[in-house]
Amino acid sequence: MLPMEHLHLEHVLQTVCVLESVVLRSFGPEGGQVLFTRDTGQAMLSRSGTRILTALRLEHPLARMVVECVLKHSTVTGDGSKTFILLLASLLRMIQKTACKEPNVSHTYNSRETAEASTARHLADKMLAFALEELDDIIAMGVVPYGCCLSWEDFTAKTQLPTCPINHCVQKLLASFFHSRLGRTHCDFISNLTCEMLTHWKFKSDLPSSLLQFVNDNFSALHTPVSGFPISCSRLIEGQVIHRDFATPCPQADHQPVKAVVVTGCLQPKLLSAGEVLVLGSGEQGREENSRKESSIVQFTAWAERSLECVIAKLQSLGVSVLLSAVKQSAAVLALAAQADMCIVECVSEDELSLFAQLSGATPVSDCWMIEPEHVAALTFCRPILLGAHRYVHVAFHDSEERITVKPCSLVICGPGEGQTDQYACAFQDAIRMLLSTWEPIDITATTASKKTLQPNKSTCLHVDNQIVKASPFQQCVLEPGCVIPAGGTFEFLLNHALLQHGSSCSISDDTIMGAPAVSQLFANALLSVPRNIYFYSLRRFLQTQTRLLSFIQNHSHPFSHVYKQEHNTIVVQGRGKSECPLEEGKLINHCCGETDVSSQVFMSDSGLESVSCKYQLLVAVLQCVSSLLHVDTVLHTHTALHTPSRRLADISWEGTEDEAED
Amino acid sequence: MSRLVKKSPSLCTDLPLDNTGICNSLHLLRQLLRSCIGPTGRLKQVHNNIGGHVITTSTSSVLLPAISSSQPFINLIKTSILNHVSRFSDCGLFAAILCLSLIEQAKQSGLRGNVATSVNKHLLGLCTSYLQQQDCGCKVKLDFCSSQSLITLARSIISSKPACVLTEREALHISKLAVQAFLLTVPCNSPGIVSLGKIVTVSVEGHSVLNSAVFPGLLVDMPDVFCLNKVENLHSNPMRMVLFSASLAGDLSDLGGIIEVHPGVDTDSQILDQLLKLGQQVVKDEVKLFICQKVIHPVLQQYLRSHGIMVIERLGITLMEPLTQLTGSQPVATLHTTIPAKAYGKVRDLSIKQFGSKTMLHLQPPGDSAICTMILCHRNETMLSELKVVCQKTEHVLRLTLREPSALLGGGCTETHLAAYVRHKSMDKVTETVSVLGCSQTEYLRGVEGFCRSLESLAAALEHDGGNSLMDLTHAHHWSHPADVMEERMEDSSGFCGCGLVESSTNQKWTYLNTKYPQFSPAPLFRVPTVQPRVLDSFTAKLNALQVAVETANLALDVRYVIQDMN
């Protein structure tokens, strides 16, 4: 008989509460760092929820399940892992309270605990269903009108229009993200740096989401961690940094442009491919030698060297002076290249080569005999750059017509130690992810799917889209790209209020504990745990903020939402209308909800901004996690001998090939 | 044994800085490092538990890696400081002690973590902007017209490492050599981007320090002495040389597949024939010096020698780059093609130098070259290894001056001066600052006091013999007085401040460090050109050390939870 563990609601709650207590230390603006050591003994610092949770190396299966849910969520949005745990704990507490108060007193259950569990399960399912069906509408009605929209121009705002206040939205959004991830002291600096970087890359593509996707995909090639310097030394540098050193003496030539070629294979031809046998025989025995009447090994090596010389001569005739190689080249290649005044960079990683190819427009070449002028990239310079302990290769690209306005740049991230630069780099990438999911909300309802395929200059599409917009303006609205709301619990307060109103406006007849009003009330109360923890140091501050917001809603709510409904439609239509004109393509996502300026001024005084779509995704993810947690009732502990082959097979995916080698 | 080991759960500590165990170990580390700083610092002996080598040192770059702790806090601080040292080579102990005492002061003042970090960051901003000002009272411009200030800078570094065990005279000698070597690596007349040359250090044990010397060019080990007699007739300057980077041992190069050799085929002799053909070409081209990074086949060696060519094999990868720079040659790795004329390099002069047991061949550059060799001698191995580390650091610090030709006053004067400046400056616009930082005025004042005390404690740390550390109330320089001097006779004990710029006079007022004094604005010095500072610190290194120390302390203060992976 396997050892069994029946899971009760309390167990689940207990487990989640333990996680909550760990996460709380670094939650919110007053939170701090968590210091942890890796199994290698290296000390790391982090405020990232996912880092902290994985570092715990939890044993309990439930806790591991929770951590997995968090990881899944945060790889998508890059944000919200700590809030995830807080909300989860708060929801479970609420559910437990309700379930204990009024267990489903039916005679089919043989104990009170099972009855409770079943009630809890039902509640969780109801809540999830509610969230999937109605939450986006409620957010659109009760929260979005008080927020504002980021516009694509915001990215460039800092350099172009430093005085215009509305354009600091992206920066504010980033600042509050970095505040929660890196602490208060550096958040402004890093968010400025992020904005600057995005500005430089801005014209890479017309749509913000593809820009963000590009930066996210190439982030490893776009940044260089440097330890031993204060963070304030972090900066942007022009062009690309290739994280390798020159294998030959570096170029002295000042002529422009520097011509470079990317090679993916060995320049020196291999005489034999693997498995082939060269037979050297005396007299007439050998096969290969027969044809050439040779029996000396020297002939073969000489042939290899001569063909290499031809390759180098070919490269020289094209004026190539830099070779970027994906593999290690032989000593002969290095020597011949040095004699031909060429410099070689060996073992460049694939990511960096693909970025280089994208930026330079030259295609990599695998066989140097086939080299053509289109393989040759023109660089403004190629020189060594000393970053921290390492010397790297620094290249900058010639402006070509198609991307005259792109200024490729890479990021140098400095920090006192490796752990810190790592932390900054992670936060940076997560910030990009967060922006991306702010910009491209995940569609949950089917009606809005067509919006993403919209091409602004196709009038047929446009027509369809406008209809959809008119038909369901609010569904459209929550998924509208770039919607943000002031941080500091505003989202939770507003949604709490909206949910309570929604609950009371629902049919009053259905007032069982499973009814819609009760569910939304429960959910609303659970939400308040987030702002409560933000203002954990003073209850007064929490209540003050809440009353301030509520009174604001009271004063503006009704006329406001009417105006909003009408204006929103017109604005959206206008936006589409404008986009017919090809010149104004970029402004498609540009329309800020005009009236939100009023509201944002009211409570944007001190806090930053956060993304509505990230919050929405978070809520859905948490509810999914709750319901899956409550559906588990028993844990079976199986015992597997570590040596049995079946186990080994199962683990082979992460054990790697080492295993097989030893077998 | 299975490698599928179950991961054990991690060990967690909540609010680590409230934990007395952790605070005690931080305090202990501070005491340990504090006792090492400065020219009179106490040495530490490091030895492991299996009877390994004993190291005597007081250098942070040697000492810190030897400190291993299970405490993640210590590791965090250690890695930060070591990273700083690896970039700037100086002020490691300064950064470590400042960081630890900032943490300690913040704990003592009882400030909330967030308040302490933001006050520290604000004050750091004050310090860095002051240090970068033109009229900063503790900064001196380095004058490249005379080597005097460079030698002072070098000597301050060398004499702050007592484990080298140098006398006054020896320290001066080494400082001069360091500056000479540094100047040799700066190319004289190359337009465009200047790339500095290289100092190759050779250490010789068992000789007096005063025998240390610097030579332009390279000194290469000559293990076999039997060709010495040939050297005399090798003065046809400049002579031609060739440098090989491929092995000339006669081994088969990798062709990619399997080679099957039938009996009767002698591949070895085929390859050797090829090598000898190479030798013939070299002889024909009148090469006088033949150097290979790897091994040379003995037959080829014999052939070359018989034609009056000097042969050096197994040069090693490290000397390849300086040698190509020195001779202007290009390493050859092809055995079948004729060596192109441009691959040959030139050497002006060859001579044999004898240092103790070492016989070395001295290669002189044909023209102007930025390569030089430094021979370091010392009486025993421990001191020699410390001296080598110190000389490398000095070279690095001197190089840093090229980018920023300034230095800071040494001897603790910069620290006391900065502390006085911060105390004074932080009183400007208190209300505005307080509202920006989001703390109360008393909290701010406590933060300032902690920061200044940490700086002053560094100046006081230079005194190890029980003397008193004082600060004058006009220029805010640091003064130390031996323990036996009575307080009333302080004015009489004529002398200079820590850096040697201020001479004591009767109308000066002093205060003990770490006591309360009325804040004042430190007066700038009227520089008399004849009075040169006697101790200088690297500007770039100290500025970065200050930033790294405050940043690391802030990180440590921000830690609320510790998770230790026990695997």
From TrEMBL, chain A:
Signal peptide start-end: none
Gene3D superfamilies: GroEL, GroEL-like equatorial domain
Record's protein name: Bardet-Biedl syndrome 10
GO molecular function: ATP binding
InterPro entries recorded: BBS10, Cpn60/GroEL/TCP-1, GroEL-like_apical_dom_sf, GROEL-like_equatorial_sf
Transmembrane segments: none
Example of a GO biological process term: chaperone-mediated protein complex assembly
Pfam families per UniProt: Cpn60_TCP1
Matching SUPFAM superfamilies: GroEL apical domain-like, GroEL equatorial domain-like
Highest taxon, organism lineage: Eukaryota
Organism: Perca fluviatilis (European perch)
UniProtKB/TrEMBL annotation, chain B:
UniProt feature coiled coil, ranges: none
GO cellular component annotations of the record: cytoplasm; kinociliary basal body; nucleus
Domain of life of the organism encoding this protein: Eukaryota
Molecular-function annotations in GO: ATP binding; unfolded protein binding
Annotated Gene3D superfamilies: GroEL, GroEL-like equatorial domain, TCP-1-like chaperonin intermediate domain
Family matches, as Pfam families: Cpn60_TCP1
InterPro entries recorded: Cpn60/GroEL/TCP-1, GroEL-like_apical_dom_sf, GROEL-like_equatorial_sf, MKKS, TCP-1-like_intermed_sf
GO biological process terms, semicolon-separated: chaperone-mediated protein complex assembly; cilium assembly; developmental process; protein folding
PANTHER family on file: MOLECULAR CHAPERONE MKKS, SYNDROMES PUTATIVE CHAPERONIN-RELATED
Name listed for the protein in its UniProt record: McKusick-Kaufman syndrome
